[in-house]
């Protein structure tokens, strides 16, 4: 589920648990640009007993996908969310998602802010 919050001349996109899909351009054209995009970066592969057959594909954006999505959304910065969670074998994220995200942000020249749990940011 995704949502947009707009207030006081600022516009923020929150990507929740989302995957890379073709609506990024539509969202950008209708609602962008964004001052910040909060996007998941863990690229988690899930294998829950009640979800059969299991999928080998990520259930959330990978670090690079998050940066690319932020670029398409015309976000001034991408703020990573939903990473640092390990519950193998049911929920396995990519190796070192924070570092992979920072490398992707540099590759695509995307500004980013890495927040600690509970930390706030002024947009």
From TrEMBL:
Gene3D superfamilies: Ribonuclease Z/Hydroxyacylglutathione hydrolase-like
Ranges where the Metallo-beta-lactamase domain occurs: 3-83
InterPro entries, alphabetized: Metallo-B-lactamas, RibonucZ/Hydroxyglut_hydro, UPF0173_UPF0282_UlaG_hydrolase
Species in which this protein is naturally found: Actinocrispum wychmicini
One Pfam entry name: Lactamase_B_2
Protein name: Beta-lactamase family protein
């Amino acid at each position: 589920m995704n949502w947009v919050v707009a207030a006081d001349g600022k516009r923020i996109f929150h990507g929740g648990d989302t995957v890379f899909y073709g609506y990024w351009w539509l969202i950008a054209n209708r609602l962008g640009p964004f001052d910040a995009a909060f996007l998941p970066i863990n690229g988690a592969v899930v294998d829950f007993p009640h979800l059969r057959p299991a999928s080998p594909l990520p259930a959330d954006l990978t670090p690079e996908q998050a940066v690319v999505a932020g670029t398409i959304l015309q976000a001034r910065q991408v703020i990573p969310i939903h990473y640092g969670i390990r519950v193998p074998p049911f929920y396995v994220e990519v190796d070192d998602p924070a570092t992979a995200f920072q490398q992707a942000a540099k590759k695509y020249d995307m500004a980013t802010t890495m927040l600690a749990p509970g930390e706030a940011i002024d947009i």
